[in-house]
Amino acid sequence: MFILKEKIVSKITSIKALSGKSDDTEEEKLLMEVNKILTQSLFSKKNVLSNLPLYKQSFEYMEEDEDNEETIYTKRKIFNLCAQYRLRFLSSTINEDNVPYEALIKVNNLNKIHCKNLKHFAILAPYDYFSQKFPNQEATLFAKTLYGNYVKIHTWGKTNKLKRILKCFHLKNFESLALTLFTLTLIETLLVPTSLITKDSNALYFNGYRVIFFLQFIIINAAFLTQMMFTFRVKLSCFNWNEPVGKI
Q1: For a disulfide at 140, which of 4, 47, 124, 199, Cβ 3.0-4.6 Å?
Q2: How many CB atoms lie within 10 A of CB 80?
Q3: Are 13 and 84 in the same domain?
Q4: Whole-angstrom distance, CA of residue 154 vs CA of residue 140
């Protein structure tokens, strides 16, 4: 049941990545509620014995309640952060040596308070953190909940969020890439003198020749950009947010 639900949510996330939609739909919210009801029913008193192996595994996951509601992140919310800031959301076993002692203390406290043995963790951070190129960048540790969401535990490191948004905007999704390409080509077209576009000495600054030049230039820029992305194997943020280290 849990595997099926995660596959459905993952499929919804992939479809929204292509469509550019970022908000949770009513269908996705309903799916989450159905999953909670099924999970609660699975671990009810009358069903515990028949689902004992799964019940034992439940102690490895965080609970979701009103006390930690503000720290709960759905996969959709995590995906949006990854797309906006060009981050990766990967298992904590990758580069786990850089997890600070403060985070480990918080995990131990959660285990004691909630009588848990938490084991399923993930880290939200830039690619350079996982590759250990810049291990001091901002990273956040999450613990997986019983319902497939994640609870924020601890954040460390430093980053300039505004600078990162501007730096990574063009690789967010297809729309941002197209907007960036259009804007840069438009600026380049406006900066080119009329004398270099047409030999007509009577031509005005804004004329048909400049429009044709823009259309030709945007095709050239698009081809060059596509070639560069294929050459250096650069993917959009909406597609590589959960890909393992080694894939840019």
Answers
A1: 124
A2: 20
A3: yes
A4: 6
Cβ distance 75 to 149 under 8 Å?
Answer: yes
pTM of the model: 0.79
**Phi, psi angles (nearest 5°) of residue 122:** -145, 155
Kindly state the DSSP code that residue 137 receives in the 8-state scheme.
B
**Per-residue pLDDT tens digits for 147-199:** 889 999 999 998 888 999 999 999 999 999 999 999 999 999 999 999 999 98
The one-letter amino acid code at 95 reads: N
**Rg value, the chain, Cα:** 24
Domain that holds residue 199: 169-240
| Of 60, 121, 134, 61, nearest in space to 94 by CA | 121
Does residue 107 sit in the same domain as residue 200?
no
Residues 151 and 173 in one domain: no
Question: Nearest 10 degrees: CA dihedral of 62, 68, 69, 74?
Answer: -40
Shared domain for 78 and 198, answered yes or no, is no
CA distances from 132 to 64, 95, 128 (A): 32, 7, 6
